[in-house]
Write a structure and sequence with these properties.
alpha+beta; 189 residues; 8% strand
Amino acid sequence: MDGFDAFDSPAAAEIDPAAEFLAQEQEDLAELGEDMGFNSPPQDIEVVQNMDFFSSNENGMETLTNGMGNINVREEPESIKKWKIEQEEKLKLKDENEEKKRKELKEQAKQELNDWYKHYEEQLQKTKENNRSAEETFVSEINDIQPGTEWERVAKQCDFSAKNTRNTKDVSRMRGILLQLKQNPPTRE
């Protein structure tokens, strides 16, 4: 059982299997890169604990979660850092402009709504005045009923214009009778 003694030693318990695997992969990739003519990857890969996902930290280092811990993959170039800062400034400016336009539209809508209510109230007052004057006229005509004027009042309620449309019945005979009664009312006996 001498082959299993390595697992029982305290030194074996301190070695992180993930770190060992990553170091081996880095060496393999470095050899592959050299064979193809690429420069070897940076030798200062650092293991970072307690990160959950692929992200950029404050130092501009991208990190990748491997399940056991994180590895700093590479530092962002200065141009990308500058671009990100410019994009954040542009987004803040756009947000401010959007908020400003939203407030302007809200004020404009409020003003238009107030104008609409003002116009509505004016129209309502005009309609009320017209209805009151029409009612007064109607009441005065009703109270001023004299015998023999019945057919004149009926004739006022009828439209005697010669508009003839296709969808209405021919009422010319009725119109003629009403006009004749208006001019020569029947006598009562």
